[in-house]
Amino acid sequence: MALKAVHVSDVPNLDCVPDALCTSRFLKGVDAERATSLKVPKFLVIGHRGNGMNMLQSSDLRMKAVKENTILSFNTAGKHAIDFIEFDVQVTKDGCPIVFHDNLIYSEENGSIYEKRVTELSLSEFLTYGPQRELGLEGKTLLRKTKEGNFLNWAVESDEHACTLQEAFEKVNPSLGFNIELKFDDYIVYKQQHLTDVLQAIMQVVFNHANERPIIFSTFQPDAALVVRKLQNTYPVFFLTNGGNEIYGDVRRNSLEEALKLCLEGGLQGIVSEVRGIFRQPAAVKKIKDLQLSLLTYGKLNNMSEVVYMQHLMGVDGVIVDLVREITEAVSKMARPRGDVEEKIVLEGEEQVIVEGSRPQFSQMELEFLLKLIPELIQQ
User: Fold this and answer.
1) pLDDT by residue (tens digit) across 310-356?
2) Beta partners for 144?
3) What mean pLDDT, rounded, does the chain reach?
């Protein structure tokens, strides 16, 4: 098949912020006819590719600590107060759903680098790359291509072999939710039947092994989102969007407005936006929530606790993050018992914001600093 950091040392200390807001999670799924039925019970923290994506060119060692999208990464994330892990699922040419992000796999042989499309590999061939399950057995070299076109050895501090979707269900704590990204190539036009075949292979594993585990499906592929919604109504389906930060041939991918339209027309339950998209259009948050859709965000800025605090104030339902330990610790401080303290904060002009007991407590100086910081952050 053919499928396809910002430093915060100068930021004021925000020490009066939302003990977990609530310990409840999504139920097993939602048996609903309309997107408006889904209610997110708390502010969610979701581990990106488990314990965080690998950025091999980064000087931040945390980005190279654990191999992304592995059982090790998932269980490492699960040691913290996290609600879901997010990971990417593709289907091999022999019909097995696997966990892997990149569309192409790179390796080196006899001094030459070559590439193969992941979905054109059989399961057995896919598993020959990188660390092997059998002790003493050496796998094929695994490289990664940077956005600049350079090839780096995919070396991390704690490495592990690749896994299938079924193994993830079998070897990860069943109380940890799965945000399954249905991965397709941005530059391939897929036929409806192909999408259906791929998604049915994934659905079969999910329904056979999910049991009571909380599940969210998400995808950047608009037609895949609509197909998976039609194939089942047990689990919520979210549409992923860059929120206008990048432009694609499919107009449905190019703005929050188009994402919202797709959700309403297709009966999807929510949107996952690049965080800069909602900071550029903060009014879109209220519009999305007024239509009773859920809203999550992703992006490098979510590794800053101050940015996460602001999103909680804005009404965002949760964040996908790489720095799992740091952000879960920050979010655990965000909640205060209801009725504890109420405080009014006056912004510039006459507008007032009442910060209730369940919301972060900001001083005048801190809030003004954050509001001024946002335009600079979204340019990163």
Assistant:
1) 999 899 999 999 999 999 999 998 764 444 434 444 344 434 443 34
2) 152
3) 84
Note the helical H segments in the chain: 71-77, 123-126, 165-171, 192-209, 222-231, 256-266, 275-280, 283-290, 305-314, 324-332, 364-377
pLDDT digits (tens, 9 = 90+) for 154-168: 999 999 999 999 999
Would you give the distance in Å from CA 140 to the centre of its chain? Answer: 29
Burial readout 171-199 (b: 16 or more C-beta within 10 A, e: otherwise): ebeeebbbbbbbbbbeeeebeeeebbebb
> What's the Cα-to-Cα distance from 142 to each of 50, 118, 126, 292, rounded to whole Å?
19, 13, 11, 43
Percent of the chain topping pLDDT 90: 73
CATH superfamily of 35-102+163-337: Phosphatidylinositol (PI) phosphodiesterase (3.20.20.190)
Angle at CA of residue 351, ends 350 and 352, nearest 5°: 115
- Per-residue pLDDT at 371 exceeds 80: no
156: its two tokens: 């991390």
Query: What stretch of H or E contains 89?
Result: strand 84-91
- What pLDDT sits at residue 42? 85
Distance in Å from the first CA to the final CA of the chain: 36
Q: Measuring CA to CA, which residue among 339, 269, 347 is closest to residue 313?
A: 347
